[in-house]
Amino acid sequence: MIELLDVSYAYLDDSVYDVKQVDLTIGTGEFVVLTGKSGCGKTTITRIINGLAAKFYEGRLTGRVLVDSEDLNNSPLWKIGREIGSIFQDPRSQFFASLTEDELAFGCENYGIDRLLIEERIKNAVREINGENLIGRDIYPMSSGEKQKIAIASIYAVNPGIYVFDEPSANLDMASVIKLRDLMGVLKKSGATIVVAEHRLYYLTGLADRFIFMEDGHLIKEFSPKQIEEMKIEEKERMGLRTGNLQVCTGQLPYILTHDKPSVQIDSLTFSYGKNEIFSGLSLKAYSGDVIALIGPNGVGKSTLGQILCGLLKEISGSVSYNRNKVTSKKRRKKAYYVMQNTDCQLFGESVREELALNQTSQNEQEIEEVLRRYGLWEYRERHPASLSGGQKQRLTLAVADIIDTDILILDEPTSGLDGENMRIISEHLKQLSRKGKTLFVVTHDYEFAVATCNRALQLLKGCCHMDFNINKNEKLLLSCMQEREK
Fold it and tell me: CA-CA distance, 392 to 377, in Å (whole number)?
């Protein structure tokens, strides 16, 4: 179904090839996963397959790309889009409408599908993503996970023969990842050919026919699902991969905690967006050294809580105290820092180095170099932030947080789009901040990261504190909570 014959590709204005002399054959109905460290070329391969590399990004493509024996170079992009459905890592980049139903119908309408059939396909797509609660809603205020569901459903409604997924689980809660896995299973049974570029492997081991490891633009090695599941920790870490089996994840974090007084205290917090109540009577105490995982389904208010804690949003009632002193939302902005999930909203410099300099109180070049090396970004110091990969942007926002150096740090999905190696680097760094007495809140759907990094978990369900527990003593409970669908 898909053939890449001696394919190399470089983006416009880039002298270095991102994909180099790739030969790849994918059979009809086959399920293939591309994995490897950030920047290895996974996303570029997906863009080559769906035609965007040559026809949208207009880079230099050599070799031949065949889809169902037809040279992709001879096909217009609209025709490719009918046969190959693409789900991007950032779903906002593929939306054309503001309302859910309009977006789900958009692709079908463009291909002239009968209205009654469109309505039937929309119903089926919504059912498959468990998205009945998304109907009739404006897309843009939705959480990232909800937007990802809409993107998947919009492609499913068009019903192409080939599906190309780029980091589809990056913004989904674990319950939604289970639903995504179920949907991929339905697609596979229907005979669809599926290509997935992904760091998180655990949900794909029961679906994929093979896993292809990439490094520096080359296809290096193939693995069976069983090999991925049984891969030794040492080999996994050497290759920068994530686990293929969540049941083997363990973590033990030594803490220097002081429980004489809380560093952060929330009392009877209430917040709503218009008539939509998010919190009512939410209370919490956090201490120096705490790394608290904020978990729960997409759209339940985890990011909202983080934004209230750092003063980006103002509570309707209740209070937030730092070191037993009540602080207004305005004062919170100077005492806490929020690392957003949408990294593009937080990057303003003309270069990676300048991004850190903009947030630095002293002109200390040595500190900038030290922080960039810590996050593996020193070699990209003169690159524009917009030219970085999603994982590299994520690391850059964390580097900025290090430069600002507040005692309270809120991170929203800090491992979204990160490979295993960089996930472990960030985990170790957050542990170091914990030992320095910082208080950290981490909004996450990443069990592997949470169990290795956090000491507590706060599960939010319909805007209330559902459960607050110690992770290291309740790893199985954490996994159960993160996989639980909202009733």
Answer: 7
Position 434, amino acid? S
- DSSP label at residue 199: S
**Euclidean distance between CA atoms 275 and 412, whole angstroms:** 25
Structure tokens at 225: 């699902």
Closest to 101 in 3D by CA, of 119, 84, 76: 119
273 Cβ neighbours under 8 A, 6+ residues apart? 141
Amino acid identity of 245? N
Rounded distance, CA 135 to CA 444, Å?
Answer: 25
What three-state secondary structure class fits 169?
coil
Greatest Cα pair distance in the chain: 70
State the pTM of this model.
0.80
CA dist 403 → 22, 139, 344, 361, 399 (Å): 40, 34, 18, 9, 7
User: What SS3 string covers 311-346?
Assistant: CCCCCCEEEEEECCEECCHHHHHHHEEEECCCHHHH
How far is it, in rounded angstroms, from Cα 324 to Cα 368? 34
Rg (CA), the chain: 23
Strands of 142-203 (E only): list them: 162-166, 193-197
**CA nearest to 48, candidates 14, 6, 90:** 6
- Paired strand residues for 467: 459
**What's at 154, amino acid-wise?**
S
Contact 225, 211 (CB under 8 A): yes
Q: Can you tell me the distance from the alpha carbon of 104 to that of 96, in angstroms, rounded to the nearest whole number?
A: 10
pLDDT digits (tens, 9 = 90+) for 35-73: 998 888 999 999 999 999 988 888 899 999 999 999 998
The residues pairing with 436 across neighbouring beta strands, listed in sequence order, are none
Q: Measured in Å, how far apart are the chain's first and last C-alpha atoms? A: 41
Q: Give the tens place of pLDDT for each residue, 367-398.
A: 999 999 988 899 889 988 887 876 788 788 88
Q: Which residue bears the tokens 């957050």?
A: 430
The SS3 call for residue 132 is helix
